Amino acid sequence: MMRYSSLCSSYDYGNAEYWNTRYLEEAGASFDWYQRYSALRPFVRKFVPSSSRILMVGCGNALMSEDMVNDGYVDIMNIDISSVVIDILIKSRAHIPQLKYMQMDARNMSFFLDETFDSVIDKGTLDSLMCGTDAPFSASQMIYEVNRLLKPGGIFVLVTYGDPSVRVPHLNQPGCCWKITLYIIPRPDFKTAVGSSSLRSVMEPVPLTENGLLPPEYVLEDPESHYIYFCKKMEG
Ligand SMILES: C[S@@+](CC[C@H](N)C(=O)[O-])C[C@H]1O[C@@H](n2cnc3c(N)ncnc32)[C@H](O)[C@@H]1O
């Protein structure tokens, strides 16, 4: 897959019509951006209990939510700005009572009351907003909403191509107070160079500096790695 950030300039990922057209063309097929649940599972299970009330923001046609139900999760509300994908999912997933679907813009989720969810999961949706017009404002609106909807102590799971220098400033906007634990994993198809031995285990969290950056000595094995931020909502 091409680097998402370079695709940003060619595709209108921030636009609902782009996604409606794409999901019509894909005609009900499934596709998971970045990583499948199987790769994320060890991290997700550590931070998100299976009894959690979960909001999947920008679910798309990924299998992530179904895979989580198959792994014991019992309550996942899925939202997406694309009415096309939500209509498809409402029909095709009607037999899975643990999954619910609603068309909604992540920048305005006023349908839900404050502190409704134990966990909010985003895989690729904030990244899409970052491609749209007015990107910083859109990102700020979405993070404000995620923070509002989480219970105190709740967990925002952000799976993104964005390294801390471009994501932590958005997360730490006024009104939000997170305890962030970061993991970095290579792309699923990344091949380690012959003869090189991995410097560290992906299961080890990567410490952030006081300024919310990667440690200067940190070396990315895959330069296009994916970043998994577990953000615990703290008292402000
Ligand atoms: C890169 S895809 C990721 C889909 C899925 N989460 C995955 O992991 O495969 C981004 C998704 O975000 C949705 N999206 C884009 N802007 C949105 C918004 N403002 N509110 C809700 N969903 C949005 C798109 O329709 C698309 O399904």
How many helices in DSSP terms?
8
Rounded to an integer in angstroms, the radius of gyration calculated over CA atoms is 17 Å
CATH superfamily: Vaccinia Virus protein VP39
Strand content: 15-25%
Structural category: alpha/beta
Query: What topology, given as strand order, has the largest sheet?
Result: 3-2-1-4-5-7-6
CATH architecture descriptor: 3-Layer(aba) Sandwich
Low-pLDDT runs: none
SSE sequence, one letter per element: HHHEHEHEEHHEHEE
Using the coordinates above, name the CATH class: Alpha Beta
> What is CATH's topology name?
Rossmann fold
- Number of domains as seen in the coordinates: 1
CA-to-CA gap between the ends? 39 Å
Mean pLDDT: 93
Helical coverage, percent range? 25-40%
Bound molecules: S-adenosylmethionine
Notes on the protein architecture:
Belongs to the methyltransferase superfamily. This is Methyltransferase type 11 domain-containing protein. Keywords: Methyltransferase, Transferase. The protein has helices at residues 4-7, 16-26, 37-47, 64-70, 83-92, 125-129, 135-149, 164-171, and strands at residues 54-57, 76-80, 99-103, 117-123, 150-160, 178-185, 226-233. The termini are far apart. The longest helix is centred in the middle third of the chain and has 15 residues, at 135-149. The chain is globular and about 50 Å long. 30% of the residues lie in helices and 20% in strands. The chain has a single domain, classed as Vaccinia Virus protein VP39 (Rossmann fold), CATH 3.40.50.150. With 236 residues, it is an alpha/beta fold. Bound molecules: S-adenosylmethionine.
